[in-house]
Every structure is written in C-alpha cells, then in structure tokens.
From TrEMBL:
Record-given protein name: AB hydrolase-1 domain-containing protein
InterPro entries xref list: AB_hydrolase_1 (IPR000073), AB_hydrolase_fold (IPR029058), Sec-Metab_Biosynth_Hydrolase (IPR052897)
Family matches, as Pfam families: Abhydrolase_6 (PF12697)
Domain AB hydrolase-1 as annotated: residue spans: 7-149
Top-rank taxon, per record: Eukaryota
C-alpha cells in the first residue's frame, strides 16, 4: 500500500544522492516514495573539476562562479512543482546538514498544504524534518552562520580543506568516513566517503 505522502531529501554539502540510497530503500519498503536529486552545489559536472573520475579541485573557478544554495533551491523547487502543482501530492521535505537551508527556503506559502487547501487545491508540503541540519537565521547564509561576527579569521571546519583559490574556491572533505559516517560500519563508511565531492562557500541569504 502506497503512502499518503512522498519524501523529498535536500542533501548536504559535498554529498551526492548515493549515501541516502539505503534510507530511500527503507522508505520504499514501507511504501513511501522518495526523491533525492543531485544538487548543483556539489555536482562535479558544474564545478569545473576536469576528469570526473579524477577531479582537480585546483582548477579555475567556473565561468559565472560556483553554484550556490540559490541554485540548489531552483532544483528542489522544480521537483516540488512537479509533485505538488502537477501531481497534487503531499510532501515531507527532509533537510540534512547544509540542506537544512534549502529545505527551509523551499517551503514557500504557495506550496504549503494548508495554504493550498484554503484555495481549494490538493497536495502540498505537510512538514519539514531536519536531520543534523543547519537552521540558519533569516538574513544569514550557511557560511555566515559558521563565521565569527567580529571580523576574526575565517573558521575552517576540521572536516574540510580548501584548495588553490582558498575560501573563494571550493572545499573538499577530510576523513569523510570519520566525520560524516562514523555511525556506520567501517566498510560502508569508506564506501560512502568515496562518493563525497566538493562544495563552494555557500553565501546565499
């Protein structure tokens, strides 16, 4: 029996959909349809890294700059338009890590189920689930949330490192199995680590 709602996952920085597959399989086993699109901010095809099988994170900054949270939001909103406006589906949005910013920003009134119901429309977002997610204050960005407000030197989290362009460029992960997947057995953690990519500083407000 299918569920009365579907799940849309907004993944975190450096991630691909791959580490979320076991979770999606579990949802499927419970009759719950789910979607986890690759978001632009960690999509190697959009980050000018050359050979995708051996990416060069020291390459030139892409023409037009690196994808931002605003670009991730466009991808999620396109999916939500299909599911809600065209499909009249009820949706729970999950935000993981920096995907919490995207999950929050996508829940605009016209896509909320209670607002749509008042307009005589079916479907809509019925909730957000934050999984180890950033809850960014209004008017701040993912990066701004990390940084000191007194102008001190930038904070670089221990799980990432920057490359040729410093904080104007992109960061890749350090010890991904340890910092991102330490609740899994070693083999699965290492497998998931191998799927991590790179992400730029996220400055969308």
């Amino acid at each position: 029996m299918s569920s009365s709602f579907v799940v849309v996952i907004c993944h975190g920085s450096y991630h691909t959909p791959e580490p979320y597959r076991p979770f999606q399989d579990a949802l499927k086993g419970a009759g719950i349809e789910s979607y986890c699109p690759q978001l632009p901010s960690s999509d190697l095809t959009k980050l000018n890294v050359g050979d995708l099988t051996n990416p060069d994170y020291d390459g030139d900054i892409p023409a037009g700059g690196y994808p931002q949270s605003s670009d991730d939001l466009v991808s999620i909103n396109e999916l939500l338009q299909d599911l809600i406006v065209k499909g009249e589906r009820n949706v729970i949005v999950i935000g993981h890590s920096s995907g919490g910013f995207t999950a929050t920003a996508c829940v605009i009134p016209e896509l909320q189920a209670n607002v749509r119901k008042k307009c005589g429309l079916s479907g809509g977002i019925i909730g957000i689930f934050y999984a180890c997610a950033f809850l960014i204050p209004v008017g701040d960005s993912v990066n701004g949330f990390f940084q000191q407000k007194d102008g001190s030197s930038p904070v670089v989290p221990p799980y990432c490192k920057f490359h040729a362009h410093g904080m104007n460029g992109a960061a890749s992960t350090v010890e991904g199995a340890k910092y991102f997947f330490n609740g899994l057995d070693e083999a699965q953690a290492k497998k998931n680590e191998s799927t991590l990519t790179t992400s730029p500083i996220l400055k969308t407000i």
